[in-house]
Amino acid sequence: MLAGLLLLATLLSAVHGLLTHPETSRAALQQALLAGCVGLAGVTALACVLHQALRPLHARNEHSEQRLSLLMEAVTDYALCFLDRQGRVTAWNAGAERLTGWTAMEVAGCALERLHPEDAVAAGVPQAHLERAAREGRLLSEGWQVRRDGTRFWAETLLTALQDSHGSLRGFAKVTRDITERRRMERAQALFAEAGRVLQPLSGAREVGEALTRLCVPEVADACILFLPSSDGQVRPQAVACADAQAATRLWEPLLRCPNADEVGPSHVVCTGRAELLPELDAEHLPQALEGTAHGELLRVLGVTSALTVPLAVGPRVLGALCLLSTGCRRYGEVDRAFMEELASRAALALDNARLLTEAQGALELIGVAAHDLGNPLSSLQLRLRRLRLMEICTHEPRLRDGLVGAESETRRMGRLLHNLLDLSLLSAGHLTLDREKVDLAALVREVTERHVDQALAAGCTLTVRVQEDDTTGTWDRLRLDRVVTNLLSNALKFGHGHPVELRVHGDDTRVRLTVKDSGLGIAPTDQQRLFHRFERVHGHDGHPPGSGLGLYIVRQLIEAHGGAIQVHSRVGEGAEFTIELPRTLQDRGHIPLHVSA
After folding, report:
1. Number of Cα atoms under 13 Å in the Cβ half of residue 186
2. Nearest Cα to Cα of residue 374 among 435, 434, 420, 433
3. DSSP classification of residue 29
């Protein structure tokens, strides 16, 4: 085009010279005109050739722009936009308009800071993202973004730097999608897992309530209150958590008011068992149903913008209500209600388990007190029966002597049961403390054996105690080991009826072992697996009534409390052999942590 303009200027100059200077040589002017025309024709031909060569490139460029435009308009689930090097909007698709509410005309040439919360803009987050994308080529990030109406959504954004062939930055391409629901589900799963970890080990209603409200703030609420019915039937706050310490001081006055059962709020939720959702609230203009109520006053004092109250129910029983309050941009919906109802049901189970555990511990304490109080008169009764049996009159009255022997045997059996119940209450409550002293296990075994001579004679069993020359002393609880040996020997005499019973004591440098062996009925392999569980009983075939199922359970717990172990070896019809191993030195521990099997 430049060459054509130069040739055209030359031709015009020649024509002007011909008209203004007729005396100039016509031959020279004709040659100049001819050269100009030939040059102009050549330039025209070159322009035609270039036009034909560039027309496909232009068509492809228009086609690419059309496809990009169609693609941007067709994608409605993602917000697509292009930015210049300063981060100003140069293109804005329909998906971006649908997601944010801003039209292309409204954001054209504007920076994207208006899409970010004020705190993020003040912290320089948008500009930092642009600089990092320009430096690294692309940046994938998540965070809150703001719509035109002021609501927030959790956005996943891919920011890609656009560079020319020389590597110079030309702008940015930004792809954004709303992942609020996905994030909510991920947080719900994490909260469920945390709730299971935190709530289950707790053993009191107050501890469960405090842990539950702490879980919800600030994860799903700005303030959370657990309401439980009191003994007078009123629904009162049990636990409170608030993200704002100043707001926490303002909420107690309306909380302490006693609401009516028909008022909207926690009391009504407890009575009906149905959740109440208030998605949009204006603290200055509350709904008519909340005017003048305790719950409405609470919402007004805190400036609540959204509220959700769900029941804590176990089956048909409603144990309480959990109230979630939002004072910011968070708005509760149906998804939040379903999520919180599931969390509340798990919390209700934890509360119910805490109640049952409290009742069970109370029953165990009562059993322990009763067992302790019955022990003294029972010991006195045993001594009186023994004196009667040894009196001269009994030697001439066989029936009286046999009756006294039987009565004395039953009182011993009752004494073992009372001691087992007392140990059971201490074990279950975790209050068992070992009274450690130097004990000779061989001497203790001989002492227990002497106490059971009469029982062995009545059972037709011979008792044998074998002790090696090794030292059999250790630091143990003498009273608890007496219970262990007594339970094992009583079982051997009971199930080894009419057969010899042997007790062996031997030790090495670190441990002392006691083996109690009978040649009676034996124990089936399937029964051996459950023999040491609580309330598990192995029924004999000799007519003896089954025991309480506590003896061997108590034995195992006491042995493990000493840091030892117990094993059983038996075959049906060949008797049973119980072996306990005790470390000579008990570790320096106060209350022994015990394993209580179900």
Report:
1. 6
2. 420
3. H
pLDDT in tens, the chain (598 residues): 666 666 666 666 666 666 666 655 566 666 666 766 776 677 777 777 777 777 777 666 665 555 555 555 555 568 888 899 889 999 888 888 888 889 988 888 888 888 888 888 989 999 999 999 999 999 999 998 988 888 888 899 999 999 888 888 999 999 999 888 788 777 777 777 777 776 766 556 778 888 888 888 888 888 999 998 887 778 888 889 998 888 888 887 788 776 666 678 888 899 899 999 998 888 788 888 888 888 888 888 888 999 999 999 988 889 989 999 998 878 888 888 888 888 888 888 888 877 777 777 666 666 655 665 666 676 677 677 777 766 766 666 777 777 777 777 777 777 767 766 667 666 666 667 788 899 999 999 999 999 888 788 878 889 999 998 778 899 998 888 988 898 899 888 888 878 899 999 998 888 999 999 998 888 888 787 778 876 666 654 455 555 556 778 888 888 988 889 999 998 888 889 999 999 988 654 444 443 333 2
pTM over cut 0.70: no
Q: Cα dihedral sign for 286, 292, 296, 302? A: positive
3-state SS class at 445? helix
Q: For residue 175, what are the contacts with CB-CB under 8 A and spacing of at least 6?
A: 78, 79, 80, 157, 158, 160
* Both tokens assigned to 381: 């009764």
**Contact status, residue 372 vs residue 419, Cβ threshold 8 Å:** no
Q: Return d(Cα 142, Cα 109) in angstroms, integer.
A: 24
Provide the residue count of the chain. Answer: 598
Q: Name the 3-class secondary structure at 585.
A: coil
Query: Which residue in 405, 434, 366, 421 sits closest to 586, CA to CA?
Result: 434
- The CA distances from residue 229 to 215, 296, 522, in Å, are 22, 20, 55
According to DSSP, residue 556 is labeled H
